[in-house]
Amino acid sequence: MPDNLEILDACSLLNLYASQYLEPILKSRAGEFFIVEQVRRESLYIRKSVETTSGFEYEAVILDSIFQGGLIKLVNLEAEDEIELFVELASHLDDGEAATIAVAIKRQMAFVTDDRKARRIFEQQNPATGCLSTLEIIKEWHEQEHNDLRLTQIALQNILQYANYKPGKNHPHFDWWNAMLQRAGWP
């Protein structure tokens, strides 16, 4: 298998999509990107920018151009050992995370997730292969592409607002997240 294969679970895909910069973020990375069919089926909506009195409205996640352009490839559980590991993991995780971890382990891909439980289970099963978070990827994008500070802040604000994601205080990039948003005037 080639190096730099990364497989995203639903939460990381939705967070990157909500940033409004999914394509440039992934294009800045040297590698290939994948999701499993279960993640495609789970990744349906993000919040809309319009808040109503009854809560947020939602907009559909549309990935057709991302798939057609080959930026993210769709994979399925294929080998018997992938399916067996998926069944084992599905008793502890949702189907998307279980399938993503099974493929990541058996095909030796880096696992991209923002879910602490999924990260813990992946690292217990497969300590040799890397595990990344959305914030790690965005921080690298910011640093490698020498992005305007405002562009990165907008991406983080979008993730907070449209994906409803905020890293926990123990996340290794929590202080970076807070500093970026505070500099932009967000709480």
Detailed description of the structure:
- The chain is of the alpha/beta class and about 190 residues long.
- It has one domain (about 1-185): Rossmann fold, CATH 3.40.50.
- It has ten helices and seven strands.
- The strands form two sheets. It has a five-stranded parallel β-sheet. A two-stranded antiparallel ribbon has the order 3-4.
- Strand 6 (about 110), helix 7 (about 115-125) and strand 7 (about 130) form a beta-alpha-beta unit.
- The mean pLDDT is about 90.
Which helices and strands appear, and what pairs or packs with what?
Blueprint: E1 5-8, H1 10-18, H2 22-27, E2 32-36, H3 37-42, E3 45-52, E4 55-60, H4 64-68, E5 72-75, H5 80-89, H6 95-107, E6 110-112, H7 116-125, E7 131-132, H8 134-144, H9 149-162, H10 174-183
Parallel strand pairs: 1-2, 1-6, 2-5, 6-7
Antiparallel strand pairs: 3-4
Defining traits:
globular, five-stranded parallel beta sheet, 50% helix, 10 helices, Rossmann fold, alpha/beta, 187 residues, two-stranded antiparallel ribbon
Q: CATH superfamily name?
A: 5'-nuclease
Assign the CATH architecture.
3-Layer(aba) Sandwich
Q: What structural class do the secondary elements suggest?
A: alpha/beta
Beta-strand share of residues: 15-25%
| Rg over C-alpha atoms, rounded to the nearest angstrom | 16 Å
Largest sheet: 5 strands, parallel
Q: Report helical residue fraction.
A: 40-55%
The helix tally amounts to 10
Q: What order do the helices and strands follow? A: EHHEHEEHEHHEHEHHH
Q: Shape, please?
A: globular
Quaternary assembly: single chain
The CATH topology is given as Rossmann fold
Number of strands: 7
